[in-house]
Amino acid sequence: MNIAVYAISKNESKFVDAWVDSMSEADSIYVLDTGSEDDTVERFRTRGVTVGTAQIRPWRFDTARNLALEMVPADVDICVSTDIDEVFRPGWRAALEQAWTPGVQQANFRYTWNFNPDGSEGFVFWREKIHARHGFTWVNPVHEVLSYLGPGRPKVIFVQGVQLDHHADVSKSRAQYLPLLELAVEEDPSNDRNMHYLGREYLYYGRWADCVTTLKRHLSLPNAQWADERAASMRYIAQAEERLGHIQEAHRFLLRACGEAPWLREPWLALARFCEGRGDWAGVLYACRQALSITARPISYISESDSWGPLPYDLAARACYWLGDRESAAEYGREALRSAPGDERLAANQRFYEV
After folding, report:
1. CATH number of 134's domain
2. Which segments in the chain show pLDDT lower than 50?
3. Are residues 334 and 313 in the same domain?
């Protein structure tokens, strides 16, 4: 089985060695450099990587990735797309070869998008950037995804044992994301995924009214059917409405989010935080208990690290304390400390609960 890795790069010199080391289980590695001003290209070539160069104006991520894919020879069986600030844990090739059977066209694998300050995993979800050499193209100017060109749907597998870790370069600007997302929505106003991402980006920029308008458009789209993402849009609307001073609207959308995807911890914890801000400790405790009743972490990007750390226990502990139930506060507090044993605030709270 012939496996190739391909990627795009720009000023990635400090990541080259770690990336190439982790990708070296492949038969070949291809990189399209889009204008590095450091020694990225030279370092890749020194490591035996096949490097091409291209200037892409106006910039689009899908164009860059498609040009990188074109570098991969036609006789390759499996293509693996990663970014240069990502590394595979050893053994990924063997796991992929074992799982990839005749007829498979695409593979999902476990992906850690970021790490918490203590080294534990933050956002964890499954990605689908392993695919057959033929029958796929990249689409969308940003938050680009693979689009299947064949009839029907591709045969997709989930591969246990393939783990990719992202170690982001925080010095790089995200400024291009907003105009590219606006372009994506302009090109295809019916694309629910891009509409959701654009509304979320407006939230990041503090453009509260634009966030609300855009995410309401997302919810109105006929193809916006994924409940998890719809609930996320409702949560973001609630955040923006609260910042606009529309407290009742914020509360209404949080309740809608909980009803839309009651199997997710995130809407319940958003509701708990909202109640905390209003001194509604009974509401906090109810929402936290609903969140903690969910014990299986989803595999989608919607799953946020805070929801699976000490937060739900910490909020529940504080709610119990203010409701006069110190015994339950201490029980929840102990669970919070188990999730974050080095947290001094949690430890101080626990000592207070147990007095």
Report:
1. 3.90.550.10
2. none
3. yes
